Amino acid sequence: MDPESERPQICNVTPFQQIVASCTGAILTSLMVTPLDVVKIRLQAQNNQFSKGECFVYNNGLMDHVCICEEEGNKAWYKKPGYFRGTLDAFIKIIRNEGIKSLWSGLPPTLVMAVPATVIYFTCYDQLTAFLKSKLGENERHIPIFAGIVARFGAVTVISPLELIRTKMQSKRFSYNELHQFISKKVSEDGWISLWRGWTPTLLRDVPFSAMYWYNYELIRKWLCVKYGLYEPTFMVNFTSGALSGSFAAVVTLPFDVVKTQKQTHLWMYESHKISKPLRMSTWAIMKNIVAKNGLSGLFTGLTPRLIKIAPACAIMISTYEFGKAFFHKQNTQRQQL
Question: 68 - beta bridge partners?
Fold first, then answer.
């Protein structure tokens, strides 16, 4: 018997329940993965102090956020003094000297965008998958690729303008009225399309990642179910499938991640008036520059830190999400039987 035919069907879980499951997964993922990035940033700051106006990348397990240093001195969490000998030493000293809450520094403002993006992404993926399976059949293997591409495309498109607004608010303190004036001016000068600056490099990284992730996730999960004779994927099967598929997709799409970070950093510098002109080069031109300067390995800079974040983040997110859906499926089934 095909294990896939026995797993809980998405049609028995309502869109609202999918939203709750994805929201829970997003928050749990952020709570568990953020400390890894906080420690990484603190170690970076120790070796190379951030100056005012300098940028760094912050990741809460769901999204990358390019942040700008605003405060002078040691007031900001990423500038607090510390003499760490390594990752474990940093964990211990931060908890001992600053309290355990410091491991989640900078999380609240990034969750404002990351949670809605994740909810849109996962809910759209499942709804589209269910629709396509009802039209094309349960065993159509290319459904995860198409659903993953469309869901990610939608999430990136919705969130991109919010990212621009958030970056502007962080580079300078704006009132809501000033922010409205800034957006109105930007639209009148450059058109509505200007609100989606940075959209292309984000798509080039996230859409291929999503297609590979979902295809391999479904493939690995089905294989593990067959291998261990399971009628229904367990929490560990989902966890393992998420970690493996996320790691593979992270390696393949890393060059686009490097380009996206560079473009976003230049955008930050331009918005904070550190440079007079924004970066106008295409994604491919930036890639050529990186290869010319650092060789092919330059496109895979930061592979290990990316894997350390992506693998557990994908594993925690998908296994929590599937657990939530299975819980709601069980509740719905019991209600129908009453």
Answer: 55
Give this prediction's pTM.
Answer: 0.81
How distant, in Å, are the alpha carbons of 3, 181, 244 from that of 315?
21, 42, 8
Tokens of 324: 């939530």
Report d(CA 249, CA 214) in Å as an integer. 10
Average pLDDT of the segment spanning 252-269: 73
d(Cα 256, Cα 207) in Å, to the nearest integer?
11
Length of the chain: 338
Give the angle subtended at the CA of 303 by the CAs of 246 and 317, to the nearest 5°. 25
Helical H segments across the chain, by residue range: 15-47, 87-98, 107-136, 143-171, 176-190, 199-227, 235-271, 283-294, 303-337
Question: CB–CB of 67/55 below 8 Å?
Answer: yes
Q: Tell me, what DSSP letter sits at residue 76? A: S
Give residues with Cβ within 8 angstroms of 179, minimum separation 6: 165, 168, 169
Q: Is 266 exposed, middle or buried (0-12, 13-18, 19+ CB in 10 A)?
A: buried
pLDDT of residue 9: 47
